[in-house]
Amino acid sequence: MSGDAVGDETLMQLFEAARWAPSSANGQPWRFVYARAGTPFFARFHDLLAQGNKSWCSRAGALVVVISKKVFDNGRPSPTHSYDTGAAWMSLALEGSALGLVVHGMAGFDYDRARVELGVPEEYAVEAMFAVGYPGRIDDLTDVEREREVPSGRRPVSDSVFEGSFGG
Ligand SMILES: Cc1cc2nc3c(=O)[nH]c(=O)nc-3n(C[C@H](O)[C@H](O)[C@H](O)COP(=O)(O)O)c2cc1C
Question: What is the arrangement of strands in the sheet containing 124-133, beginning at the earlier edge strand?
Fold first, then answer.
């Protein structure tokens, strides 16, 4: 990423895309806590990251923690809260991609510290973080980072999709 700030309006456009995701009983369990580059919050969020993520995330325009409410508003447990929040994240990521932004999910951060430092209550799950920013120049990457900048493959559909019963 380039290090350019992602403006408030653009950031809110991403969250608006997430807002319209489908969810079980329209429970909308997703919550997002964000820190924009150049604000005092950014260093705090950045410090939650694992070392490997810290270097490339220093040039993010914003860092976001994705949180999911584990129960419906009536207290009943939601078996699909993570699934619904994942759908919201994907909507957001597609919107960002359409706008020419980088939106990169992360599990490499301190989940326990994120919960404490952001004040996340027990009935909410800390799901993931993501970085959002404008694409940077390939020359600004470290050698290790540059080597990783190749398209990722996927296993064939037949390895994930089965007729009739679970195929392993
Ligand atoms: C929930 C989630 C967590 C991830 N965690 C990290 C991470 O901590 N660090 C990282 O560099 N990439 C992370 N990724 C990126 C994945 O490694 C990447 O999406 C995957 O290898 C497929 O590559 P592609 O998205 O470029 O097609 C994460 C992605 C997701 C969706």
Answer: 30-36, 62-69, 124-133, 102-106
**For atom 7 of ligand 1, which residue has the closest CA?**
106
Q: Ligand 1 in contact with 126 (CB < 6 A)?
A: no
106 lines ligand 1 (CB under 6 A): yes
What's the whole-model pTM score? Answer: 0.96
Any ligand 1 atom below 6 A from CB of 107: yes
Q: Is the CB of 94 under 6 A from ligand 1?
A: no
Measure 130 CA to ligand 1 centroid, in angstroms. 9
Q: Structural domains in the chain?
A: 8-135 (3.40.109.10)
| Each residue's pLDDT tens digit, 97-142 | 999 999 999 999 999 999 999 999 999 999 999 999 999 998 888 8
